[in-house]
Structures are given as C-alpha cells and as structure tokens.
Amino acid sequence: MCVETTARMGGNLGYDVLVAYDATYTFDLVGPFGWRRGAEELAQASAASLHGGGFARVLTTREIVAAAR
C-alpha cells in the first residue's frame, strides 16, 4: 500500500517513477461488504492502476537493472 501511495505522489509531482513489480509484496485483504481479495489480484490491480493511470512505469527488477547498465 505504501509503494502505491508513494508512486502516485511521485507521479503527481512530475517524477519519472519506476516500480519493480516483482520487488513488492502485499497480502490478502478483506474490504467493505466482506469483499475478499487475494494478494496476487491486489498486486495486479495496483500495478494496472499505477501503469495505466500514468503514475508510474511498472517493470520487473531485471528490466530496471538492465536499463541502468
């Protein structure tokens, strides 16, 4: 949750934010109305929101390291 919040703020402030999808972690959650979501589903939804919403580029760790070389 903190990674998503930080990425959104960075994107809003104009930074080129990169999120290493495979270097983050979440856990199953229960939301309102008893909605249950698994960790993988939540991670994918967060990545889609960040990437598709233009807040960050979601990549793998391998892609980020390769680009830094």
How would you characterize the overall build of this protein?
The longest helix has 14 residues, at 39-52. The model has no long low-confidence stretch (mean pLDDT 96). Helices cover 48% and strands 14% of the residues. It is α+β, with helices and mostly antiparallel strands and 69 residues long. Strand 2 (29-30) and strand 3 (36-37) form a beta hairpin. The protein is built from 3 helices and 4 strands; from the N terminus they run αβββαβα. The strands form 2 sheets. It has a two-stranded parallel sheet with strand order 1-4. A two-stranded antiparallel ribbon has the order 2-3. The chain is globular, with a radius of gyration of 13 Å.
Low-confidence stretches: none
Report strand order across the widest sheet.
1-4
Q: Evaluate the radius of gyration.
A: 13 Å
The general outline is globular
Give the helices and strands as they follow along the chain: HEEEHEH
Biggest sheet, open or closed, and with what strands and sense? 2 strands, parallel
Give a nutshell description of this structure:
The protein is of the alpha+beta class. The protein has helices at residues 2-12, 39-52, 61-68, and strands at residues 18-20, 29-30, 36-37, 57-59.
